[in-house]
Amino acid sequence: MQIGDVTVEPLTDGVIPMPPNLLYPDVPLPVWQALPGVLDGRGMLQVPFGGFLATDRWGHRVVFDLGGGLAPQLLPDGELPPVCELLPRRLAELGCPPDSVTDVVLSHLHIDHVGWASTAGVATFPRARHHIHAADWRHFVDEDADDAVRDKVAPLRDAAVLWQGDAVTPYDWLRLVHAPGHTPGASVALIGSRGQSLALVGDLFHHPAALDHPHWRCGFDWDPSAAAAARADWVDKLRAAGTPLVGPHFPELRPVTLR
Ligand SMILES: [Zn+2]
User: Fold this and answer.
1) How many structural domains are present in the chain?
2) CATH code at position 185
């Protein structure tokens, strides 16, 4: 994807087969079954996890979300996903070694987004500034929301740029906007350059089918009513702006334009 001066590439780390009611516990299965081509033969969603690499023409390399990482315990039964650990290889294919990454942006600190934050206690991207909303750092690192997340993220303490408030602008073309609900510090990354735009929405939406139903409760939301309000707000904003959106769980990590 070319957004003005910025090139955006999907970075798949893996794929997890998931029953749709794990993501959306209140949505009856027939609703999913009625959507053509969404469920596989076993009635599962094939849910990717990973992130995106944005490269600007000044040589900045910004990775958005870091997948599940090495040997992730992502499934409810603690098993490994059948497809995982692809993200470093994908970056290598794109000619992007870890020490060339200038920035990492974490949409939120759930385990399937911070997996490659560190490897054996050492930051995987040694020269990158890691942009994290302070509310998520507080919740997941200073408090004890999730031990696995804290193990992955705590080694970033010196490399973390903890931002506060409603929004921050790391580069002219990049704005991070606080969108709490899924987690306390969840955020949306808006890429805009030369009149073109793209929103990287993190887990505001896990599947494009939910774009028509922002009130669908996600089973992993920290504050369900705040999350529903954030989803409804962003759908309106992105539709009005004509900005395509994509999240690291969208099929094939493909952007969707709201009509
Ligand atoms: Zn996620």
Assistant:
1) 1
2) 3.60.15.10
